[in-house]
Each structure stands twice: as C-alpha cells, then as structure tokens.
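User: Structure please.
Assistant: Input sequence and predicted structure:
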Amino acid sequence: MRTPAFVLALGLAAAFSPLSAQGTPPAQESTTAPQKPEPLAFAWPVPCSVVITKDGAKARGSAKLRYRLDLSKGENGELRARQHDFSFLEVNGMDATTEAMQKALAPALALTQAVPDIVVDAQGRFLRIDGLDEMIGRVTTHLATTKGMSDAERARLEASMRAPAARATLEQACGTDWQLWVGSWIGCDLASGTEATSEGTTTILAAEVTGKVVMRNHGDVPEHPGHVRLSVTKLVEGEAATAQLVKLLNGFKGEGGKAPLDPELLEDVRAELVGEVIVERATLRPLRATRTKAIKIKVRGEKVREENERATFEFDWTVKER
C-alpha cells in the first residue's frame, strides 16, 4: 500500500501557504464601523493541550487523522507547540483503524514522529520550526525505501531537500497550519460584518506572486458564545499576475536552478486560497478551521492544469495538559 500523499505532507508540507505570516494585513479599503473592537490577541493558557482532528484531501487521495498539540514555555520567552500521538482514522474513505490498515500504515505513522515543533513568540506569531533536519532525514529514507532508490539517488534527493531555498520553503510550509489557526488573525480589529482589502503574496510554483487579500469578520457564532467567525481570501489572476510569475520563474534560470515549468510557455494563471476559522474572541483558541486551495495554470499546447486541496481541523480543548 502506497503512503498517502496527505501523510507525506506532514513531513514535507505543501510549499503553498494561503495565509500571511504577519497577521492581519494593513487595510487599503475597509468599511466604516460605528465602534471598532479591541484587536484580537493570542492568549492561550500556557501550558495547554488540545486534540486536533484533521480531514484533508488532495487529487491523489485523502486522509483523516487525530493528534495532540501541547503548548509549553520555551527559551527566551518563546513558546513551543509539539505535535505528537498521531493516529489514522480514515485513508481514501476506508477505515484506517483495522489491524490490517494499521499494519499497512505503520511506515507512514513512523514519519509523524519527525513532525517538527512549531516555535512562536509570546504574542503567538510564528517564528520558526525546530526539527527540520530530522524530518528531512526520515522523509528521504522513507522515499528511498518505498521507491527503491539507489544510494546515489537517495543522496541527490536529500541534498536537494537540504538546499537553502528548499529548507526555507519547507520551514515556511510547516508553519502553514499555525498561521491558519492563529497567526493570520492576530491584531484583527474588524467590526462584525465588515472586511478589509490589501495586497499580499501567494506562493505559486515556488514563486511569490502579489495578489488581492480580503479579510472578513463574519460576526459572532450563536451556537458558540464568545466565538467569532473570520476568513481571509487570497486571489491571484489576470495578465499582470501571469507576467509577474513568468518573470519570477525566469529568475530560477538566472540562479542556475530549474524552474517548475518553462516560463515562456505560461499563458495564464489563477489561484484562489481561502482560510476560515471559528475562534474564541478572548484567547484566539480555535474550535474549527478550514482552508481550500484552487489553482488553474494554462501552459501553451497543454490542457489547463488544475490543483485543488482542502483541509478541515476540529479542536477538542477538554483534554488536560501533560
């Protein structure tokens, strides 16, 4: 049984983050509210624990798993979020709790032991991940084994993953979940029913392309008193975005690298990314978070390339910290 692509994403993550690493962007256009609320601030109790159920799907498969996140104090005022105790619930729609499936998924489950810790500052802003080297080592060993790579092929794979650009991309991608749960909403002061529009960057084919960002406060959630629903949408499209992506992809050649596709053949690109959360207003503790990604790329002489992904997170805060 092949390791689900979703499982490898725990280690590699997708180099595609729909959310800003700096919290709410400065608004260029916003609706006027009679009373501006206090900016949302990170105030999780420390230490604390939460059980997370993640349900994700990509073109090559889907998986539902459960794991635990423990937040504790680190060094120099930093906070450390450790993700552990992973278990698979479903894979491609099949029950993953049976003995046969557990045995088949054992190699993939072993990879989760190398999921890096997330390090944030006291205000909840993402700083870095800790454990990237171990993750790269485990993932390359797993891929080399499952694909029957030679020692030379394995060495080339690991070298490419340890290259500075690849490491930076992986580190940013590994912080994507935290950005969805917390980071993107820090400092949000939108009144209920209002939105703010700004410019932001979106990663497409490993290049940062500028697009439109819309942050919305959808209002209180009646079934969850004290909680609010927020969303952020990133949209990249049109001739200007395509031209910018072509220019950035050409830069790969100038640096001696290899572009994901020939820039001269790129005709059109459209990417829409949406992140949404229900969070506790007083602490920014999430109850539910979702993200979706839809990309269309037109390359001359080919059919339109489409990439669609989704992920949903449910949070159970009734567990006790360890």
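The longest strand covers residues 266-280.
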